[in-house]
Write a structure and sequence with these properties.
Distance between the termini of chain A: 35 Å
Number of strands of chain B: 7
Structural class of chain B: mainly beta
Number of helices of chain B: 0
Strand order of the largest sheet of chain A: 1-2-3-4-5-6-7
Largest sheet of chain B: 6 strands, antiparallel, barrel
Shape of chain B: globular
Helix content of chain A: 40-55%
Order of helices and strands of chain B: EEEEEEE
Largest sheet of chain A: 7 strands, mixed
Oligomer: heterodimer
Helix content of chain B: under 10%
Strand content of chain A: 5-15%
Number of strands of chain A: 22
Shape of chain A: globular
Structural class of chain A: alpha/beta
Number of helices of chain A: 50
Strand order of the largest sheet of chain B: 2-3-4-5-6-7
Amino acid sequence: MSQSQPVPAPTYAELHCHSHFSFLDGASSAEDLVARALELGLSTLAVTDHGGLYGAVRFVAAAEAMGLRPIVGLEVELLDAAVADPHRLVVPRRRPARHDAVSAEAAPAALDGRPARPHADRLRLPGHREPVREDLRGIGDAARGPHLVLLARDATGYRSLCRLVSAAHLAGTKGVPRYTHALLERHADGLVALSGCRHSEIARRLLAGDRAGAAAAARHHAATYAPVPGLGAGVFLELQHHLLADDDWLVAETARLAAELGLPVVVTNDVHYARRDDHELADVLVAIRHGRTLDESAHLRRPNAEYHLKSAAELAALPPAEPETDPAVRRAWAEGLRTAGELGSRCSVDLGFEQYRFPGFALPQGETPLGYLAERCEEGVRVRYHPVTPRVRSQLAHELDVIERTGLAEFFLVCADLMRFAKARGIPAQGRGSAGDSIVAYVLGITRVDPIRHNLLFERFLNEGRTAYPDIDIDIASSRREEVIRYVYERYGAEHTGMVCNVVTYRARSAVREVGNALGFPRPLVDRVAKALETYDAVLVRRDLEADGGFAEFFRAPQGEVRANARLDHRSGGSQRTGGPAARAGALTDALAPRSTLRRTPADDEGGPGDTPASVARLHPQPRAVPLAEPRTAPRAGSTAGLSPWERWLELCARIDGFPRHLSIHVGGMLVTAAPLVDIAPLERATMPGRVVVQYDKRDVETLKLIKLDLLGLRMLSAIDDALRAITADCGVCVDLDRLPEDLPEVFAMIVAADTVGVFQIESRAQMQTLPKSRPATLDDLVVEVAIIRPGPIQGNAVHPYLRRRQGIEPVRYLHSSLEPILRETLGVILYQEQVMEIAIAVAGFSPAESDGFRRAMGTWRSDREMAKLHDRFVAGCLGRSGLAGADAEELYRQVAAFASFGFNKSHAAAFARTAYESAFLKLYYPAQFLIGLVNNQPMGFYPVEVLVNDAKRHGVAVLPVDLQRSAYRTTTEWLGLPGEPLPDGCGIAQRPPIVRSAACVVPDPALRGQWAAESAQGYGVRLGLHLVRGIGEELGARLDAERERGPYRSLADVVARTWLSAEVIERLIRVGGLDSLGRPRRELLWQLREVAGSTGRARQADTPAATATQLDLRLPPTEAPELPPPSELERLADSYAILSLDARRQVVELFRPALERLGAWPISRLSEHPPGRIRIGGLVVTRQHPMTARGTVFLALEDETGMANVTLWPNTWARLRTVVRRHALLLVEGQLQREGAVVNLVAQRVWPLPDEARSVGGPDQPEGVRQLGYAGTRRSG
Amino acid sequence: MTRLLGEPPLVTVELDDAGRLVAFAWNGRREPVEVCNRWRIEEAWWRRPIVRDYYKVAGARLLALLYRDGVDGTWHLERLYD
């Protein structure tokens, strides 16, 4: 980054300013502050956030872009005083941290054979994290350590800041750095200190009357920081005046102290927001930070609104400059204003780290990175291509040429090295994203997609005009990602390696919740509003709630009532408040919503944003529910004082949108640098023990032009890996997916039949609805399929035209002839990011680099404002260059914009399509092994385990119940003999599940099966693992596995003694039949459990190892159980569903089949035989979706024992039936069967709870444990 | 002891040319005063906003706390120090 020109005559500089990266304290973004500073005529602005440099990069970038001189700084909170502080004037005493009481050691000892607490040993349950963050809620600044402001004078100073921040954060815990004076002294090079606000050591001592101490502290700082040439000192005493009662005095005292010590003063304003009106948001942030309402946090807030950016003139008009003030103070004030400008002009930042960006890849003697890379490519090209065609040669040469000119050879070598490591260790890994556009990445083994074969655009990945450097994203089997990360740390050293952070920002729901709570709205209302939202964007909250309809009362809230109620406070005057939070909440409820409204509206807790884009709503266009007014998308300016409480809530939500809240680890971004990382970026602890992140996020890293590797965990790779291992172990064959032909017609037949439950990327409801129409027959078609069923293409109106054109229903059309060459391969619709770039270049006249910028700007969340600018440019380009009509240009922009914000690039889609194809292959030929891969890597994919299991059963895979004697911790395969052979004794099921005859259930042709799958594959069933039982975690699982190896359990007492499972877990095991193999009835086992568990408790208390516990005479049950009736099938199923959410033997709807037949309902497998028209089906709701693209339409996946069906509820139907649908898991649905080609869909008209209807015709009750399973609406994978 | 006045009564004030407070009148009596201290609070914007410039003033007969309401510009007497 270049540094800005020095300003000739230094005007005032604000040197103490917090952006919103002072988490939950600063109330303006760096961009706002910079813009305001320029309006006020400031020359320089320093951003001094609390404790870290989180916002430094954005601030510097914004300031340089807008022409303001930036200074990077920091305000630290110190743990100690600079000089002795015997009376704790500087570092106040605080109550001990609350969590000290709860630690493992503090667990009370067992007394008298009974634990002192009922479950003392459960204090440290796995997954129960010890609190690591100090609880500072409710503790105001006055009760915390003293502040000090540090500014970087130059690059050395920036380095010192980074090292200081890193050292303090690494010495502390997450979010609570440990700054001490000793640390400050070690990292003082190139820094300037400002004495800080009224919570600085000097001010605190002065306010407490300790002048001598204040002077000593100032001298201490002066000795630490080297003098700034020309200004005489390295420490400056800050004069601040916020019109507080003692500010006159404090300014005067500080000025006098400075004069006595010969130290310079600067005037600052401790800025926390850009404009006066922003103080409202700042107050809300304080309330949020302390977890209180505004009313409860009065003493924690700043008392007035004077902490905004002020111009030199405003500051010069403050009381210290008034005529009646002591002339010495007046002079000091004027001097302070001058010195601030002066000091500002002497500080500079340079965040240009490009020369350090490479990790310094170790090369063999005498090699250059490019030469070495070329050699590796040459080796790779001979492995990947047979024969090596001239096209391959020329593409490789072209890419190497670009790589040479951009100097990225080392980057490729680093990635290749990492992939080599993964391959050597057998860790499944593959490049994703735009790297797939590169043949170099392909031949180096980084990606698995052949860019020549798929005709990919290298420029999408890398072009010389690109301002930011490319990412190589690598998907790694999630169970083994840590190994790769550790390798990178070891290979390049912890000094040079760090994870990129992710700034967690306010989005719609978090904003609504936290702002609502701070404003004192009743919690149930806040909850209701938050759950009704579908948008992510906090500025669109208003639009969502207006559309919802359930909140209409609030929008009409009469302001008079609110005012009347506010008058009560007036009498108390000043800073006094009336009414506690409860009174306040009650008052608000009264004012806002008549009680009847609250009672009348059913609890509205289902508005989840859907991930799954394509919707039947789109496929069958219907009149939309309500046309919406154009939403206000920007927060209004000014104070919210005149608004009703409801409006104020919405307004503040809009203002807080995008504010950073805290940091988390980026999913996989790793930074590898040549210079030690602590010199380039500040580090801090992550929540994960031992993990360190840099305080810069992905965007910052890009701005700094550092190189980032994304190592992402992909569970499907783990699942495939597990399946392949199981295949090798079971069948003795090694399936090499790299050599799998990519055109197996049977696999595509399965895909076209939408028999894709569990298949990567193409298993969702929306995919299943389109697969039979798009009929992919080649891998290329699958690439389209993966790219098309996404929000982007749906919003860009791409899905429908593509499907119709694909089916030959409508002709291929182009908006303009210039689009034809670009969009030919996708039948005239925009599907790929590459196409967006090509359109921008060819149609709108962008340069390649600009087109990439265009695509990137629209692909990120920052979009709204920037997009308006790009829109004008794009439309003007289209009109000028290609002669499109205005409306067409707008339409084209709309399509491009809608798409670009969500889109896949083609190479990414190609990589995913390949994985989808491979998983489809495994599902078809090795269903048992594939199923265990999926089950063991949950949560993943679209469906819950029960759907995966039932789907496998329908394909003839025998699924065996959980059995403590036979189940491992993980779900495993188990040999059952080939079909036709009798099942082994005691396997837990009576017969193999029959293959369901249905169009949606594809099994391999017996004649062809032998060609692709081992004969023995069919002989394996799946034994459900103990991990499915709640309460059995990984640690316990390993112990159980070891114990099972030692021999079978002989009795319940034996189980209790050897496993150390808690009574609850054993009870669960008994209830799901996991101990049936002991040969005793379940009820008897339950009867015995308590006594046996009690007697074994003694063995445990004596600290007897599990091995010897078996020697105790516990094998005989102490008392005889009375005759107990065996559980009915209904009870058995209820237990199984309640505990495992599934049953290995029977799908619950089977129980209702006779009743369903009497009710005239069809089994789902036979829907395709039914003519279109009215029909009834019964089933269990396995997913419920409210996709945001479907505008209020709700989709249910209803499963019975024969298959799964899609049920659509139009918005008005949903409004009518939501209560039934939400409350009941088992439904009887009547509706219109629609058929479009092979796609069958039921549009619901009437819905009843199935058990009620069944009972009326003599059917069974609902097993109690059966719940709705999925709630796909809450998944956010889009 | 101080006396807190229930509904702070309106007072009229006299300002000099520079805008400084020199006297106020309450209950028909004019009190020449000198400002000892002053501060500003801004509060309760989420209900009925309170924006006040407080003045602690000393006169020959009294010590008082006045404020100028920033919303409507009126002056009030809030407290009398006995």
